[in-house]
Write a structure and sequence with these properties.
Layout lengths: L1 E5 L5 H7 L10 E8 L2 E9 L5 E7 L9 H15 L4 E7 L3 H9 L3 E2 L5 E9 L2 E15 L2
Parallel strand pairs: 4-5
Antiparallel strand pairs: 1-2, 2-3, 3-4, 5-8, 6-8, 7-8
Length: 144
């Protein structure tokens, strides 16, 4: 059975060894971690600096996929956002990532109506350069 909870300080070392916590040092970032017993099997980052709050960096290792873990992480993020009094949650996804787009559409996210935006460059994630070249589409969900 999978349990999803906010990453506690004492979990950081174990999770960091097993999963890529790219936004760990980002201001306003909180990680939700999916656990299968004592093993971290996925994560999602919630960025509280944006309005609406942003779901980011949802990751499930290849060997753990197709178990509903990304769905559970997304739903846990939505519940956390709702419990904090917010009525919407947002995310962006690469237009070429059909699996992620299908997941979020199934979960009730919809396009904001803004055209896809191109982003490219190199950023520093946890002290290491990361290059990207993507076309992102913005999705939002009303949490009512």
């Amino acid at each position: 059975m999978i349990e999803v909870r906010l990453m506690a300080p004492e979990d950081k070392r174990l999770v960091d060894r097993r999963l890529p916590l790219h936004r760990l040092d980002q201001p306003g970032a909180e990680y939700l971690v999916a656990w299968d017993g004592t093993e971290p099997v996925g994560h999602a980052c919630l960025d509280s600096r944006e309005d609406p709050l942003q779901l980011q960096d949802v990751f499930v290792p290849e060997g753990q996929r197709r178990r509903g873990i990304a769905t559970q992480l997304s739903e846990a993020a939505e519940e956390l956002v709702r419990s904090r009094g917010h009525r919407r949650i947002a995310l962006d996804v690469d237009v070429e990532n059909e699996a992620a787009r299908a997941l979020y559409e199934r979960l009730g996210y919809h396009e904001t109506g803004d055209p896809p935006r191109h982003q490219s460059g190199t950023i520093i994630l946890r002290g290491k350069p990361f290059s990207f070249d993507v076309h992102l589409i913005d999705l939002v969900k009303d949490l009512g």
